[in-house]
Amino acid sequence: MPNPINYNEIAKSQESDLEAQNLISNPQLKKIVMPNSDIPLFCDLSTGTARPYIP
Predict the structure, then answer these.
(1) Domain of life, per the record (predicted)?
(2) Per-residue model confidence (pLDDT) at position 21
(3) In this model, does residue 2 exceed pLDDT 80?
(4) Are 43 and 52 contacting, i.e. CB atoms less than 8 angstroms apart?
């Protein structure tokens, strides 16, 4: 059985990650509210599919 994704922990990691802070200016990186969650995460949209940035 897969482990549930902890969106809170990912969001906290994104906020404290220095590399993520530099990447925020990238137009392909946007804050997206994830399905089944109310927590926005920075996601890479360059492929047309939102892929969360995992620090």
Answers:
(1) Eukaryota
(2) 78
(3) no
(4) yes
Residues 6+ apart with CB under 8 A from 25: none
Report the alpha-carbon distance of residue 1 to residue 4 in Å, rounded.
9
Neighbouring C-alpha atoms within 13 Å toward the C-beta of 7: 15
Q: Contact at 8 Å (CB) between 33 and 39?
A: yes
Residue 34, classed as helix, strand or coil, is: coil
pLDDT digits (tens, 9 = 90+) for 9-34: 999 999 998 887 788 888 889 999 98
Question: Which residue do the tokens 């969650």 mark?
Answer: 37
pTM equals 0.79
